[in-house]
Design a protein that fits this description.
The chain is α/β, with parallel strands linked by helices. About 25% of the residues lie in helices and about 30% in strands. A seven-stranded mixed beta sheet has the order 8-7-6-9-10-12-11, sandwiched between helices. It is globular. The chain binds S-adenosylmethionine.
């Protein structure tokens, strides 16, 4: 196992995180024991963040103790790996507006106290303004207004100099448009307010998706 980012391990072509709850799987992923530790495979076809890592993500803003606002938690596939990485010292505020997804997410939160579930619409960040400042904002919503929602949340919660990652689903914006044009438009919109560091297309793991990594510039 080679540690390629804090808490992210690579073995051959597969990546792993160290399991915070040994013996327990979250979404049917493989468990691997090595050197007295247990690792969970981080499957790039199931998690866009894993796909971005395998496609050459340059900066990985997560480590032990990181606080994250995660928008679009769903049942917690990616959230569970971030929970492994930030450990007991970190916190993930996991926002999800679907009650059905939230029910499954709640099972995960019971086993992993570093995930705080928030049943809310990410378009209305005032509803969870008690979260306060975070180190990283991560968004994966698959909504036509996904970029605007990220901007609103980052401006409200992200610490100066903090990073954000947003998964862009081109087909949620316009099914007829060239995905590359949609990625560019999103990048331009984000660049007006933030420093955009990298845009990563996620093929072959996810069709017509990219992840944009950026940073909230500290005020002059
Ligand atoms: C593509 S899935 C997220 C997958 C998840 N990020 C992962 O990697 O495991 C998108 C999720 O965002 C949620 N969602 C969409 N719009 C939302 C909004 N405005 N507020 C909160 N959640 C939203 C959906 O219910 C869905 O569960």
């Amino acid at each position: 196992m080679e540690e390629i980012f804090p808490g992210v391990f690579r073995k051959g072509k597969r990546i792993f995180t160290e399991n915070l709850r040994p013996g327990q799987k979250v979404y049917g992923e493989d468990l691997l024991r090595e050197g007295g530790k247990e690792y969970r495979e981080w499957v790039p076809y199931r998690s866009k963040l894993a796909a971005a890592i395998l496609k050459g993500l340059k900066i990985f803003p997560f480590k032990k103790g990181t606080t994250i606002l995660y928008l679009g938690a769903s049942t917690g596939t990616t959230v569970s790996h971030l929970s492994d990485i930030v450990g007991k010292e970190g916190v993930i505020y996991a926002v999800e507006f679907s009650e059905r997804m939230m029910r499954e997410l709640l099972d995960l939160c019971e086993k992993r106290p570093n995930i705080i579930p928030i049943l809310a619409d990410a378009r209305k960040p005032k509803e969870y303004d008690w979260v306060g400042e975070v180190d990283v904002v991560y968004e994966d919503l698959a909504q036509p207004d996904q970029t605007r929602i990220l901007i609103k949340n980052a401006e409200m919660f992200l610490k100066p100099g903090g990073e954000f990652l947003i998964a862009i689903k081109a087909r949620s914006v316009d099914v007829t448009e060239d995905p590359k044009k949609i990625y560019r438009e999103s990048k331009d919109e984000l660049s007006e307010r933030f420093e955009v560091i990298q845009l990563i297309e996620l093929e072959p793991y996810e069709k017509d998706h990219c992840i944009i990594l950026g940073r909230f510039r500290a005020s002059p």
